[in-house]
Amino acid sequence: MTIVTLERNRAMAAGLAAIGLWGALATLSVLAGPVPPFQMVAMTFAIGATIGIVRARRRGLGWLDLLRWPGRVWLLGVAGLFGYHALYFAALQLAPPAEANLVNYLWPLLIVLLSAPLAGQRLGWSHIMGAALGFAGVALLAFGRGLTFDAAHAFGYLLALGCAVTWSLYSVLSRRFGETPTDAIAAFCTAASLLSLVCHLLFEATVWPATTTAWLAVIALGIGPTGGAFYLWDHAVKRGDIRALGALSYAAPILSTTLLILCGLADPTRSLLLAALLVTAGAVLASREMWKR
């Protein structure tokens, strides 16, 4: 195994870990209780920033080293992390959550499609079909729960599409800044946390987690899905096969639904198994070139 192959495999493992953590997002959010969304982001991103700062300081980086990034790197990072979540919460306010979430989950498919023109990747039929199968699985899961689209919520759907475009662009364009170390995520999380705090103070009433379990869930969110996962994803999209990562990302909503069911927070549906099979088939198809090497 060559050094390049080993590095790519490690990056793919980091990407899979990030996707797995995102699969726990819904369950941990439910356990955290009715904390306002921008307050939640401010809290969890602060935890995520702390992870990166501690990691960087232990490696000998100074405080200024965590801030000295080119302007375009700052723009991409803050727009990606804060912009995505701001659009997502706005979409959930203006459209039914299930429908908005389905539109939002166009981002893995967009990552695959944008990887050719923006990241210089060769795009084959297996990548496109793999991502399409993944989206079909997620759509099946959503429609199996009675999802319907109403034109009255068109602006909310448009914002959800903005989420998908924002995260896919952030993921693909991050590959162009492969020389920027993952330490930069700590700075982006800090900025996103502060911006979220401002939005919280302007638009929300403060509601603190009510129980020990809720506080532990908030901490777990910051360590995992809305904190630590961003460091893993950054390494993955810069060093791994971004086309395969896009298709593999459709495992997140399947894992999310499965975990909710296992924790007794959602009811099982007949569509879950078929959706999981479609997502699995899509992931295998999209990553088949990688396993041949």
What does this structure look like?
- The structure is a single chain.
- By secondary structure, this protein is mostly helical.
- It has one domain (3-292).
- The protein is 75% helix and 0% strand.
- It is built from 15 helices and no strands.
- The protein has helices at residues 3-22, 25-32, 37-58, 71-94, 97-104, 107-119, 125-143, 154-174, 184-203, 212-223, 228-239, 242-248, 251-262, 271-286, 288-292.
- α1 (3-22) runs antiparallel to α11 (228-239), α3 packs antiparallel against α9 and α7 runs parallel beside α12.
- The radius of gyration is 19 Å and the shape is globular.
- The mean pLDDT is 89.
Itemize the secondary structure elements and their pairings:
Elements: H1 3-22, H2 25-32, H3 37-58, H4 71-94, H5 97-104, H6 107-119, H7 125-143, H8 154-174, H9 184-203, H10 212-223, H11 228-239, H12 242-248, H13 251-262, H14 271-286, H15 288-292
Helix pairs in contact: 1-11, 1-13, 2-10, 3-9, 3-10, 4-5, 4-8, 4-9, 5-8, 6-7, 6-8, 6-12, 7-12, 7-14, 12-14, 13-14
